[in-house]
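Sample 1 of the test manifest.
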Amino acid sequence: MNSKEILAPEVAAKLERFELRARLIVEGFITGLHKSPYHGFSVEFLEHREYLPGDPIRHIDWKVYGKTDRYYIKKYEEETNLKAYILLDCSKSMGFSSGTITKLEYGKTLTSALTYLMIRQKDGVGLLTFSNKILSYISPRATSVHMNTIFHELDVSDPQSKTNTSEVLHNLADRIKKRGLIILITDLLDDPEKIMLGLQHFRHEKHEVVLFHLLDQQEVDFSYNRKTRFVDMETGEEIITQPWEIRKFYQNKIEELKKYFSAKCHNAYIDYVPVTTSTSYDTALFAYLIKRQRMM
Amino acid sequence: MNFSFLNSLFLVGLVAAIIPILIHLFIKYKPKVVYFSSLRFLKEVQKKKSRLLRLRELLLLITRVCIIIFFILALARPVIKALLPQKSTSHAPTAIALIIDNSYSMNYLEKEKPLFEEAKTKAQQIIDLLTDKDRLMLVSLDNTYNKQHEYLTNPSLAEKELDRISISDNTQNLVQVLKMVTPILRRSNMLNNEIYFITDQQYITWRDIQEIDLRTNLFVISVGMDSTRQNISILSAKYIPKILSESNKPAITATVKNFSSQTVSDVIVSLVLNNITRAETAINLNSYQSKQISFDVPQQGESFHFGEIRVKDEILPNDNIFYFNFPSQSRPKICVITSSQIPEALSSILDVITQLEWEKSTPQQLNEATIENNQLFILHGINNFNDKLQFYIDDILQKGKAVFFIPDEQLYLQKNLQSWLEERNIFYKSLEEKFASIDFVNQSHPICAILTEEHFQSVDISKMWNVTTLNFVPLLSTDKGNSILFIKDNFLLSAIDLTDSWSNLIYQTVFPVLFYNIGYYLGDISSEITQYTVGDQPAYDVQLEGQFTCQMPNGEIIPLTFSEDKNSFIFTEQQGHYFISDESGLMKVLSYNVPREESDLSMISSAQKKQIMKDQNNIHFLISESWKDEILSSRYGYEFWKQLFWIVLILLLIEMALAYSGKGLFKR
């Protein structure tokens, strides 16, 4: 499989295990990075220094000793200051799909890829799934065991209930004390102003925020051609309409929503990344890396 | 406002207008169900759009129904009659040929006014309905007038020509005029062409109408209310010059016919010679009866040049006079067509009566010139009646010349001749060899007028053909009941050969007298050319050459030139005498008569009308009371269907705009 191919959502979706998905996506992504202008950040950074008394013996690099007869310590950059919180919207609206994968499915895969990438970089990653309330919370850590915990949580998360993003955001903002990176993956189908207030709350607490606005392509295009009865996935409300009659109006509304968040996020120094379920994962990962680099 | 349709059958299609309504009311598509992430925006739209959408759907439905209705209406070609058509100018521009029947039957008096007056009034009414956008060609049945008016013009200009149309003695039949006008209408490049024909509906006018391929609507407007018209006509008059009659005087015979379903009595028929009434007689005529009247020409010192037979009938005067004149010379022109010898006695008598100028021709020698030069053709001893001879004999009879057929014993071998005779209902059945004598002489016929049975007392007949005929008049019959001489018009038949083996007739004193009368009655060419029908050219043997003057029947005097191959005498449209004179005085009188077919005023029956309308779809006989509405009905709103098609087109565009307005309708 080509390294680029795995970055396509529909290809990655074929892999059952998030671990595998995440690894393949990230490996594929990094292979691509070598050829890209973003070549300054290495996850394999190592430092050797001479052994000083008191250093743990297990850290001596015996291979170097074998070559040079000197004791060198292999220093890992084990500790990092960054703690990232991935907030994944698991409301029913995220269960919408017009093609092979749902928005939630995409969100989960993106979460797993980000988790993998960040833990590889020794950043701590936490996960919060929510609908109208917090469904699960895993505090950030940077171990590979922790990664499996997150993957497991992603595995069992299903779309449920309505959205109430703002409440969850405020709730979380109050709980996190240490400055960190907030990655929100949601379709933003809630009151935009309230969501913005929640996001600004994070900014107020000096957190960096990346907002992945995740939509299905059909939610953007609204290209239905038959008279259709639309049923709201969250509320169960129904509307019968001729989609071609209202397409333009709908598209304008979605466009307005995007513009609103784009403008507001720009003002609040929040990275706003609109993605659809057909967007390649590397687009989303780039957005993260750019943010990460800025934080360095 | 009156509304009707030219193609009303299409109106059935209006039922189709309910299809969009049925679809709208009863056919509901089951919508597809889609579980959508959020209806937040959709609900917002739904509020705004629902009213507009319903309105648009209603508009679409109305538009679609209207498209079907207007399309069907356009196909049905609606006709709208305005309430005040004479003031309306809404009719489509039309090229019209208005034909006025000006044959002399239109001179018929009804309510003391000639029908022609009524025809002109109706023509004026039609012209009043036209506008400057129309084009009119005003013509009649008179070829001379028509030649000068073969063009379409402004109705107001054509109106001025109306007074110039008058009753003509020399008219064409309708078909010829239609053949003249239809190409002119077609060349006008106007979409609507119509022909109006104002006529007295005389049957004769419609002769040969099936010959024409009429593609333009012809509306027949009738004049005259009386369907039982009466007319008495002198059909013919003929000078019988030197025939041996009882009084031994020349005679004038005339045929008078009563063209009506009623008996008329005390009809006065008079003979006028050189403008003086010489004789008068009163006759009674049953319905459609014709009678032959004979007047003796008084033998006086003066020489008569011309004359008329008159009948008094004031309702239609044009055919009341028959003009004739006296021949300048009188000598029968006889040709004997034979393959064998001519009996001596016969050739001697021919020498005498033709002053040695008779011709003899074999069937092979017979040619056009011989036929032109002679009037009576005696067929005797023909042994090969071939196609050529048959053609010539038919030609002779068609030209009004006479044939005298004398059979021989070999007739039964001549199959061609026998079948030719049988076609004319003449059957030479068998040759009978028995003695017979003549015991009947038809004295009512001019040929036998002075002869009696006594004159034929010593005539013995030993051999004769047993002949049966249809419509032939016997002149001589035997005591055995067989006739030996028959006549029908100009075809004389004998049952015996003129040789002594058949009878001794040729040696009897009565034979020269009988043959003299036959020769003069059937063979005198001069009696045939003393009268012409209007429009005819005088025959080539007018025998005048040089410069002359001619006094026309209306008194006008015109110069005239006759040369061998050309004469300039072409103005023969009037009936009456044409007096041709040179410096020395009166040279010749030519007498012209109107054609007598026109005398029969029988009107075209409704069955005949139906047949004509069946043969020619474009001919419409209009009802006399409402003719004005009828002709207008084909014109007002004639192009209304075009407007309807435009409406359909506009509605289609609206429909398309409405149907595809989904994109733009809610655009902010």
